[in-house]
């Protein structure tokens, strides 16, 4: 079977390479010529473990090719995956589906054989049915173009593993059309026992956003308790361990810290609220506004802690931020809590240097106003405070002796709760974590976070 993947960003490039690994002949199509040129040479334009090897292998074998031409794409295959972006369109959170509409329209203009189009992007409920009728209307006379929806649940950093061995597959169709082809495409995973849910368009679309909304809620739930333990005392990690021992709750996604970011969870919970309002359901998803607000408040909290730690530290205190990507094993800085906090500290007059082992380039493109030393030593040299915001392994393994001789002042804020408090306090550092009352000697931040501006350092 020959398959196309339209949109070769994080999702599409992974999907295309994994389809080739499953044995199909694949063409990846994107409107971005630079991206296509890199991929066609077997170079991955972003960081994702195990994907460069897969890409190179299949570009070299000839099983995987890339193009900017929709005509070539339509002629090459009769099964087409849509994996274009669905970013946040406006302040109210509505999803921008113009890439998906545009891609389908462009494809239909060239399709002259019966075809199945399989949507993979994350979309507002109702999109698949709308696109199916658009396909019926715009298909050339004599050709039938059917639509199916097959949402994707991969995590960045584990994209290859999640694609080749997913937790489940969801096929959304209209009365089963397209199911035999979908089962064929995923034959390897299905034979290995991957659970399969075959359902209608709407359920398939909603499963995806429900999963992301649940994950976001789980993170903000534990971070809400972090706000309590910061004031009342208690240990948020022990609390998470204890509730997570209940199998109905589970320990995963209960890591308190600076919260969630990335290209998906934040925009997906906003789009779901906007779509729910469009459906006339008023406040059904209002709790997600609290999930979002609580998540963003964690970033405020880190800014506050830095200001507090450095009150009276002179004209332009120096802050070293460890981490720029939204999570480890990724160079994705879309809505990254780490980069957001770094930029806000810079705006408030701190001298900010950011070190990330992989995301240096993407961070510098997004936030060129910040400094990006090439080494961790370069970033922390002369720092008045060190702030850990992305839990890369090399940061998790830091011990006071690694930094003692480099910094100007021994202040460290662990925004991901991965360092051993006792070790840092014993080492003579002022140490703060989210979800823990500050130790004696490390000043507490007032519970009411009012007057942030009043606390701001004036350059
Ligand atoms: N990044 C991830 O881990 C996951 C993403 N998703 C969803 O997948 C979709 C894509 O996400 P990403 O890959 O992260 O976005 P991305 O922004 O990295 O990639 C989108 C790609 O589509 C291309 N594109 C835009 N318009 C096009 C058109 N008309 N024809 C061909 N190509 C076009 C862009 O040039 C870009 O390369 C989104 O809906 C996202 O929510 C779902 C699961 C995981
Ligand atoms: O729709 C998507 O694009 C994807 O979004 C998330 O995947 P991803 O964004 O790659 O990353 P996650 O591992 O979910 O982490 C998201 C954010 O939550 C944060 N997080 C995660 C777990 C936790 O316990 N605490 C926490 O703050 C991470 O640091 C990160 O900023 C989902 O996990 C995927 O299933 C989904 O396919």
UniProtKB/TrEMBL annotation:
<dbReference type="Pfam" id="PF03721">
    <property type="entry name" value="UDPG_MGDP_dh_N"/>
</dbReference>
<dbReference type="InterPro" id="IPR036220">
    <property type="entry name" value="UDP-Glc/GDP-Man_DH_C_sf"/>
</dbReference>
<comment type="pathway">
    <text>Nucleotide-sugar biosynthesis; UDP-alpha-D-glucuronate biosynthesis; UDP-alpha-D-glucuronate from UDP-alpha-D-glucose: step 1/1.</text>
</comment>
<dbReference type="Pfam" id="PF00984">
    <property type="entry name" value="UDPG_MGDP_dh"/>
</dbReference>
<keyword id="KW-0560">Oxidoreductase</keyword>
<protein>
    <recommendedName>
        <fullName>UDP-glucose 6-dehydrogenase</fullName>
        <ecNumber>1.1.1.22</ecNumber>
    </recommendedName>
</protein>
<dbReference type="Pfam" id="PF03720">
    <property type="entry name" value="UDPG_MGDP_dh_C"/>
</dbReference>
<dbReference type="InterPro" id="IPR017476">
    <property type="entry name" value="UDP-Glc/GDP-Man"/>
</dbReference>
<comment type="similarity">
    <text>Belongs to the UDP-glucose/GDP-mannose dehydrogenase family.</text>
</comment>
<dbReference type="InterPro" id="IPR014027">
    <property type="entry name" value="UDP-Glc/GDP-Man_DH_C"/>
</dbReference>
<dbReference type="InterPro" id="IPR008927">
    <property type="entry name" value="6-PGluconate_DH-like_C_sf"/>
</dbReference>
<dbReference type="GO" id="GO:0003979">
    <property type="term" value="F:UDP-glucose 6-dehydrogenase activity"/>
</dbReference>
<dbReference type="InterPro" id="IPR001732">
    <property type="entry name" value="UDP-Glc/GDP-Man_DH_N"/>
</dbReference>
<keyword id="KW-0520">NAD</keyword>
<dbReference type="InterPro" id="IPR014026">
    <property type="entry name" value="UDP-Glc/GDP-Man_DH_dimer"/>
</dbReference>
<dbReference type="InterPro" id="IPR028357">
    <property type="entry name" value="UDPglc_DH_bac"/>
</dbReference>
<dbReference type="InterPro" id="IPR036291">
    <property type="entry name" value="NAD(P)-bd_dom_sf"/>
</dbReference>
<feature type="domain" description="UDP-glucose/GDP-mannose dehydrogenase C-terminal">
    <location>
        <begin position="320"/>
        <end position="421"/>
    </location>
</feature>
